[in-house]
Amino acid sequence: MTQNLVGYFGFGSLVNTATLRTNYVDTIPVVLNGWRRHWQGRPGIDDPEIALLSIHRHEQSKLHGLLVVDNLDNLKKVDEREEGYQRIRLSSDDLAIATGTRELPEALYVYVANPAREPDSRPPLLQSYLDAVMQGYLHQFGASGLSHFIETTIGFDREIIKDRHQPQYPRAIILEKNHADLFDDTLSGAGVMFSG
Which residues lie across from 31 on neighbouring strands? Predict the structure, then answer.
């Protein structure tokens, strides 16, 4: 049965099931060992350029995230969604299930942004994208998960595009008012610069 399934680790918007667009089978809260999350520019894809989330190998780090278990036939759609990322193979040893025990698919992946470099400029963040990511962490892992997301992500000290009321992110979510205030306060504390 598992040979017809794949699992891909979400560390950003994929943590929010409201952004998923395939008939996925299951989601499993997991920890990815040996990787750290960062913001980086997305050259050649967005105009004007914005920052996106990616990860890089970092032996001492652990990332909470969501393993999306999906049908193998949907992998091409996910690859298209993750344009600008490389699909990297993981082993089951890289992942620890957050609670309980579950059978994982043999084919496990994570999407890493390409090229893995920061441009000379520091492109801004996109508020509608962050809303989706932070809502996902809050729903899946609670307040401690939201704090973990902030603490394990490098590069928040940059401007943000406040597009919440006219979202540029194509999978924008509906946000509760108290969550909007919580997210903005949390980001300000992390060094994000709100202007205008």
Answer: 64, 96
User: What pTM, to 2 d.p., does this model score?
Assistant: 0.93
How many residues comprise the chain? 196
Give the pLDDT confidence of 57-93 residue by residue, as tens digits. 999 999 999 999 999 999 999 999 999 899 999 999 9
Element (H, E) at 196: none
What domains can be seen in the chain, in order of their start residue? Answer: 2-190 (3.10.490.10)
State how far Cα 52 lies from the chain centre: 9
Measured between alpha carbons, how far is residue 90 from residues 39, 61, 65, 115 in Å? Answer: 21, 16, 14, 19
Lowest-confidence region among 18-22, 31-35, 121-125, 141-145: 121-125
In sequence order, what are the residues at sequence separation of 6 or more whose Cβ sits closer than 8 angstroms to the Cβ of residue 83? 45
> What are the Cα distances from residue 188, in Å, to 29, 141, 182?
27, 21, 10
The two structure tokens encoding residue 73: 């036939």
Radius of gyration of the chain (CA): 16
Contact yes or no for 152/36 (Cβ under 8 A): yes
Q: How many CB atoms lie within 10 A of CB 73?
A: 11
